[in-house]
Specification:
Length: 260
Amino acid sequence: MEVIIKDSYEEMCTAAAKAVAKVLNTKPNAVLGLSTGNTHRGLYQELVKMFKEGLLDFSQVATFNLDEYVGLGRDHPQSNRYFMHENFFKFVNIPPQNSYFPLGTTDNYEAYCRWYEQRIKECGGIDLQILGIGTEGQIGANESGSSMGSRTRIKTLSKRRLAEFSEQFDPDEPLPSFAITMGVGTILEAKRIIVIAHGEAKAEAVAAAVEGPITSMVTASALQLHRDAVVFLDRQAASKLKLTDYYLWVQEKRPDAPDR
């Protein structure tokens, strides 16, 4: 696992966007795994900027989103599909038929999850999976205790997760208790993985994922097993890492290090 530390959130997003651009410029028809959350807004803004400047073309790209809340329709302002449209899709030229989402309103979740896994395979697998890290060290909705070999499925959200996003919903609106999420095993099959995290609130989770033991209690720690995973952090998110000096030394000294 490679760790890239930048001084600010903005610099981190720019570096991560350059890494995404490198994949797309190498393979214009790349399959991207996408995720949502406040951390990702800056990354998507950078990619949109590159697109508007003519530096990127998404016309051949296919995308698969990481997760979706069960019970939320595509137009619900708290759905992940809505987030992607408002922050990314409506600004770039990804063909709508090439964007896939876990469906939170299906009548047959098991069948849909099997189809989602099969569709990823039919598209050639995910070339680049973009992830964030939750405050409990989770990736997607793979809460603590999730199997390292898990596939796309329904997962019950933790009480802490519900508390974190409860303010985003109307007080009279019931919170979604479940999400459809790619499994840890599904995520690990991506050819390349980029993780972004910022802020002091994520520091403990980042340290556990990057330097802690590989355990189902911190599902992001499974990324230590991946052959090509890069973690982009700002200084605050990196503040509890033990090997910060080494990571910075590697960034400075590697002659083949890309401009991230």
